Amino acid sequence: MNRSYLIVLVFPLIFSVAATGRSETSPPDAAAISAAVEDFHQALAAGDERRAMSLLASDALIVEAGTVQTRAEYQSEHLAADIAFTRELTEKLTSRQLGQAGDAGWVTSTFQVTGTFHGKAVNNFAAETAVLTRTADGWRIRAIHWSSHKAARK
Q1: Of 47, 67, 101, 149, whose CB count within 10 A is highest?
Q2: What pTM was estimated for this model as a whole?
Q3: Are strands 120-135 and 104-117 parallel, antiparallel or unpaired?
């Protein structure tokens, strides 16, 4: 086989694998890791504070808008607002990537968030990274980071 022909065939394959930075195999506990994050979102949407908090580890950190809150601070200062926001708006999952190393897992998701909140139209793109650990009670969120920006107007 001609060497240049081989390079033309193999290089794009190598480049595509390197560019994605991940293999196509799922982490061993992908379903359970993903379910813990999804359960947290469902608890917020249902207004179930107890369930949402049960999915956060006792030492969880919540990072948003340039601030870091402890679990207790989040519960007393921001949880109610997140529940109200989540209940009023529609989140459409646009991507999700999972990873796992032993008893640690992570989920990076993107969403489009639309609707009306406090009388104002919302059309945002949001990103979330959740870091979880396996506990005796299942996977729990140890840190969660949110960021968002307004969708471009057309």
Answers
A1: 47
A2: 0.81
A3: antiparallel
